Amino acid sequence: MRVEIQDPEALRTIPPASVLAHLRASGWEEAEVWPDRAVVLEKAEAGQRWEAVVPIKTTAPGYARNIFQVVEVLAMLEDRSQLDVFRTLASVGADTIRISARNGVEGKPVSLTYANGLMAGAVSALAAAARAAETPRPAFLGPRSAKVTDFIDHIAVAPSDFDTYELTLLSPVPDPPAQAELFPDSHDLPFSRLATRTLAGALDATHAAIAKAHETDALDSFDAAMSAGVSANFCSAVSAMSDQAREFGDGLVADIAWSALHPIHRSPNAHVSFSLRDVQTLDDASKHLRSRATFENEHILADVFRLTRDPAEFDGHAVLLVELDERLRRVEVMFPSSEYDTVIDAHRRQVKIELHGDLKPKGRGYVLGHPRNLKIVDE
């Protein structure tokens, strides 16, 4: 079914700069400028010369009609639906992140469960990359920073029919200051662009580390990849999405296309794929990286799950139940004698405690060293 985009209000939401950026990126050449009115671009294709007139203001008379004509021509030349072209123009000001099944089967419906899993995995991967953009670490625990949360909150989901294992996300890139050159090649990047660049770097570095791990039968390559944004959280997220994709293909493909309005001239678009064989390596890498992590001065909100001795003989050794990395984990801790009464009281009353300490992995759980600032959190 071919849908025509003729809603004037919808067409006026596409800024002239986005239309011009897409046309120029697609090989259209500027033929004429009508001062304060419009830019005329031309392209030779399919045996004839095509023309596109783009008014410079959305308030210009006939703006919607001109943009419709551009959409109509692009749909014909690119053999796409007008709706698809409209979505492309609407996303020109954003970096586009596309996640799909490797060699996927077209037309296989995606259930709500799988769609939810794909979305959750994408959020985890983006959050891990954004946290690495702030400070590269082997693993991340605890709440995200305000900058990372804001980045995730501004990611838009492109419309999808969910007739295949695929998700397209749009990360808006703000305009640079008027007096500045295009910032993508400068050091003063907006955080959204810094996060997507880190995502692209982490994907490439993870792919290279997997290849090295297969070659050497060791995981040292992931240690070196941390500086590029690879972390235990990132490996887990990519593994989860790749493993789930086995119902629709034989792995996962991630593509990142930079905003045509704000291109990165020194970095090509990213295209990375992960096979089902890579899932186990990613899981092993996640455990490896997490085992190397020490989380200093972490804020902990916990239940006192167990005292290793009866209250009358309590020696300070307790097991806490803490939500870490969106999962409940057991955390062993040795409290100083000055805190015995507080810990016993919290265990008896079944109320939460909060404290700070240094977390280190131990088996499937953690050990909390140097516990401090302990207090009971009354509901």
Strands side by side in the biggest sheet: 5-6-4-7-8
User: Largest sheet at a glance?
Assistant: 5 strands, antiparallel
Helix and strand string, N-terminal first?
HHEEEHHEHHEEHHHEEHEEEHEE
Task: List the total number of helices.
Answer: 11
Uncertain stretches of 5 or more adjacent residues: 178-186
DSSP summary, beta strand count: 13
Q: What count of structural domains?
A: 3
Overall average residue pLDDT: 88
Radius of gyration: 26 Å
Beta-strand fraction estimate: 25-35%
- Please bin the fraction of helical residues: 25-40%
SS class: alpha+beta
Amino-to-carboxy terminus distance = 57 Å
Shape: elongated
Would you mind describing this structure in some detail?
The protein has helices at 8-11, 16-25, 63-77, 82-90, 112-134, 146-153, 191-216, 220-225, 232-244, 277-291, 340-349; strands spanning 29-34, 38-45, 48-55, 94-101, 156-157, 166-172, 251-257, 270-275, 295-307, 317-324, 327-334, 352-362, 365-377. Helix 5 packs antiparallel against helix 6, helix 5 packs across helix 7 (191-216) and helix 9 packs antiparallel against helix 10. The longest helix has 26 residues, at 191-216. The protein is 37% helix and 28% strand. It folds into 3 domains: 8-90; 95-291, no CATH class; 296-377, Nucleic acid-binding proteins (OB fold (Dihydrolipoamide Acetyltransferase, E2P), Beta Barrel). A hairpin with a 2-residue loop joins strand 2 and strand 3. Mean pLDDT is 88; it is low at 178-186. The strands form 3 sheets. It has a 5-stranded antiparallel β-sheet with strand order 5-6-4-7-8. The protein contains 11 helices and 13 strands. With 379 residues, it is α+β, with helices and mostly antiparallel strands.
